[in-house]
Specification:
Structural class: alpha/beta
Oligomer: single chain
Order of helices and strands: HHEHEHEHEHEHEEH
Number of strands: 7
Strand content: 15-25%
Shape: globular
Strand order of the largest sheet: 3-2-1-4-5-7-6
Distance between the termini: 40 Å
Radius of gyration: 16 Å
């Protein structure tokens, strides 16, 4: 991991800042925040299959992948422009062999047999409210896999009070770093109702929690 790779990323992400696809947070701060998703107490097995929901221009998935070279990633986003920027970012750091940028909707891919119940780790930074993240993210996990999200005090409380048993999952850990607060939900069961995740209109009409 060299400074030149982060300099190359900053150059790619300049256009994202200009068109509003990425805020003004400095790349060093983004690096530190992304590192917080996988603390030293959390073990990622070699070859772990990971997904970043709503990756935008590649954050945090790409930055986590740079820190964990034995992992493979799918960076998923529904915005074509942001996916294009994420693909350029992946290429400039030389990780196209283990990171795939996918344009599409999480609620559709979560029903795809090539995605559903296959992942060891799912992360989400700005994907949506807690119920949305849970409904779209947890069906992607294999048993024992983890969904890690960054949280505010309000969203952390929503996760703590949620009944995750219908999604064959439970809240197992919470932690803070100098760059943010995070929690981890683990897939504990083998089966999630085939109807989940529901279509966007149904999720908005009746949120899971």
């Amino acid at each position: 991991m060299t400074d030149s790779r982060y300099q190359a990323l900053e150059a790619v992400w300049t256009s994202a800042r200009e068109d509003g696809s990425l805020g003004s947070v400095a790349i060093n701060d983004l690096r530190e925040h992304s590192a917080g998703y996988v603390p030293s107490t959390m073990h990622l097995q070699q070859g772990a299959r990971c997904v970043d929901l709503g990756t935008g221009v590649g954050i945090p998935g790409l930055l986590i992948a740079m820190l964990h070279p034995d992992t493979t990633w799918r960076l998923l986003d529904a915005n074509v422009r942001r996916c294009e920027i994420a693909r350029r970012a992946v290429r400039v750091v030389g990780l196209a062999d283990r990171i795939e940028v996918v344009h599409g909707r999480a609620d559709e891919y979560a029903h795809d047999a090539c995605w559903r119940a296959t992942c060891d780790l799912v992360v989400a930074r700005l994907f949506g409210p807690p119920g949305e993240v849970a409904e779209c993210g947890l069906p992607l996990l294999a048993q024992g896999g983890s969904l890690v999200v960054s949280v505010s005090p309000k969203t952390a409380n929503a996760w703590r009070s949620a009944d995750l048993s219908r999604l064959a999952a439970s809240l197992v850990d919470e932690w803070k770093t100098s760059s943010g607060s995070y929690l981890r939900v683990q897939r504990t069961g083998t089966t999630i109702a085939n109807r989940l995740p529901r279509r966007e209109a149904a999720r908005r009409r009746v949120p899971l929690f």
